[in-house]
């Protein structure tokens, strides 16, 4: 979200109570505290809003009810956006709706969610697409993004940096999969909001394809470190969070860049530039991995 703030695309940010707001404060964004499950609290947030960027979703492992947030919460947000006569509603979804089994996906692929989180994300997509058929609905666009990797990502990037510092990365799987850089995700959402000719209303995006060990190798090179890669085994478990391991095992590979073509854009980031940016960020913030 901070990338859209930095591009001066967002003038008002809506956050739940207790959210980390330091970055947003520094960018002059009007802050509004609200709860997706509290319909009334969303009205102030929607005043004067032309475009809604929907990015709120608990992640697996969270103690929050992601099924309720991704169904009732999204429905509330869309209803209030409709009442406020917002023109566009851009929702961030995920390739994870295609499941946790290795496969190559395209816009023609049938989603096969494997767990409750994936089911909740798919249900949110379904609710939005169904609601978009109403004549009084804002223009609804869904962006399904591949697994994000970039600075400050705590579920993949920081654990990889930690393992590289230790000289050995233990990974659960091999084989190419698709990744996105957060800035490319932000650009995709911006394009989806402003390119009214973009069709269809569902776009699948990625920045680049790489095997997990290629990510480790490129990141190690950018840091000037040497690090080996080992496979997860009976006596060598990966320190990656459980859901991240599931994502790497799934190896979801986006077949084409059609989503970017529809949006009139090409991703700025590839494997090398992503790892270089992570390296530069980490050198300025070595405390980020908790290994001083």
Report how far apart the termini are: 28 Å
Question: Can you tell me the residue ranges where pLDDT is under 50 for at least 5 consecutive residues?
Answer: none
Q: What share of residues are in beta strands?
A: 15-25%
CATH level-1 class: Alpha Beta
In CATH, the homologous superfamily goes by the name NAD(P)-binding Rossmann-like Domain
**What profile does the largest beta sheet have?**
4 strands, parallel
CATH topology type: Rossmann fold
> What Rg, in angstroms, do the CA atoms define?
19 Å
Element-by-element helix/strand order: HEHEHEHEEHEEHEEHEEHEHEHH
Q: Percent helix among the residues?
A: 25-40%
Question: Can you walk through the features of this model?
Answer:
With 292 residues, the protein is α/β, with parallel strands linked by helices. It has one domain (2-289): NAD(P)-binding Rossmann-like Domain (Rossmann fold), CATH 3.40.50.720. The protein is 38% helix and 17% strand. The protein has helices at residues 2-6, 22-25, 42-46, 66-83, 116-131, 157-166, 182-194, 212-223, 242-250, 258-263, 271-284; strands at residues 12-15, 30-33, 51-54, 88-94, 104-105, 139-145, 147-148, 168-171, 177-180, 202-205, 208-210, 228-231, 253-254. A 4-stranded parallel sheet has the order 3-4-6-10, with helices on both faces. Strands 7-9-11 form a 3-stranded mixed sheet. β3 (51-54), α4 (66-83) and β4 form a beta-alpha-beta unit. α4 (66-83) packs parallel to α5 and α8 crosses α11. The longest helix is centred in the N-terminal third of the chain and has 18 residues, at 66-83. The protein is globular and about 55 Å long.
